[in-house]
Amino acid sequence: MNIDGFKRLKKEKATEVKTDSLIRTMKDDIAFLESKNGNKKIFPPRDLPIVESAREANFKAQREAEERAGEEAERQKKLEEEAERQRIKAQREAEERAGEEAERQKKLEEEAERQRIKAQREAEERAREEAERQKKLEEEAERQRIKAQREAERKEKIRNLKLKLLNNLPKIIAGLVVVILIIGTSVFFYWWNYVRIVPVIVTHFECQNEQCIEVEGEGESECQINDNCKPTVPKNIISASKTETIELKIEEKDLFLDKLKAIFKSKQEKDTFRIILIKLIEDKKTHYSNFNDFISLANISIPESIKESISKSDINGNNYNLFLHSNGEENRLGLIINMKDGSDLAQELNNWEKTIVVDMKSFFFKNEELKLATEDFQDNIYNETAIRYLNLPDSNLTIDYAIINNNLLITTSKESMYALIDALK
């Protein structure tokens, strides 16, 4: 007999508890099997898991439900509190917006009132000015009326006086004629016999302000008619769309660059040339600037070896042209110098390359120091003409020179050099 099983059975009977559970249990199954086998003892298998009763499960479910209900109530409470906070916050924001709107409306009303007062004052000021102007007009009209009245009275007096004179005119004229004849005869007789010295007046003609003027005194006559006093206009080496003339008194020669810069900045049609002549006024005499005067006025320097090769001219300005060329956006200054036939300037120009930028600086109208984009002059060929050029930092600014048809060409841009070569070809 299995004593362990017997002990366990007794213990189970002793601890058996009646429950109202509707859940099927092992006890019920064992009792059913024992009754079926003639009350033969049947023992449950060992190591079975312990199963809680249905009532404990109900209690646990009930507790969980209560806990969930509590949590739900707590969550609902928090949601209500949050909703209340949001309502209060929205109410406060609405009140703040209403306050701000009221403040803004107040400011708008104040501004409108200020504008109304300002407009009223301006209207009053205009009315006052208009009244003052009207008063002045009335005063001026009154002055004009009084002046016209006085003028009429003066004319009336003059007319009356003339009438009186006309009435007495024959007598007055007769008396005056007699007196004048007596006095005149006496004076003439005295002058003719005792005073008269027949003078010999020597005169000559001088040019003054391009006019032929007769001047007392000895001297060689410079002119006979006004046209003799007008200086001969230098010829243009190239054809130009326009010619500008800068007139300067000799004592105002420092103003030349300013006047040249003013022309330089003026608008000019694209791909056109404009010749600039320089007329100097000295002691009421005018003449066009020769080349030496020009380089002095323009504050440029040209080596003596090159100046010696410049062609001579009896007419001032006939051996050079100062010009402006336009590329459509900017003007560029250039110079044409007529050289003697057969002049070989290659070496002299090559030597000048070392200082030409500094010597011709005034042609660029730049106050700052000119920096070089390349160290040395470069070679170029255009329309079968050799060109030497040096680039400056500005892409549209260079110093170019070339020789064509005994003319030394100096330009400050590549486009100007090309246009000049085309014009001379």
Total beta strand runs: 11
Q: Which oligomeric form is depicted?
A: single chain
Beta content comes to: 15-25%
Q: Largest beta sheet, briefly? A: 9 strands, mixed
Q: Calculate Rg over CA atoms.
A: 61 Å
Compute the average pLDDT: 84
Number of helices: 9
Helical content band: 40-55%
Protein described:
With 425 residues, this protein is α+β, with helices and mostly antiparallel strands. Among the domains are: 199-230, no CATH class; 231-424, no CATH class. Helix content is 49%, strand content 17%. It contains nine helices and eleven strands. It has helices spanning 3-14, 26-36, 54-195, 256-265, 291-298, 304-307, 346-352, 356-359, 414-424, and strands at residues 203-208, 211-216, 242-249, 273-282, 285-288, 320-326, 331-338, 378-382, 385-391, 398-404, 407-411. Strands 3, 4, 5, 6, 7, 8, 9, 10 and 11 form a nine-stranded mixed beta sheet that branches. Strands 1-2 form a two-stranded antiparallel ribbon. A hairpin with a 2-residue loop joins β8 and β9 (385-391). The radius of gyration is 61 Å and the shape is elongated. Mean pLDDT is 84; it is low at 1-21.
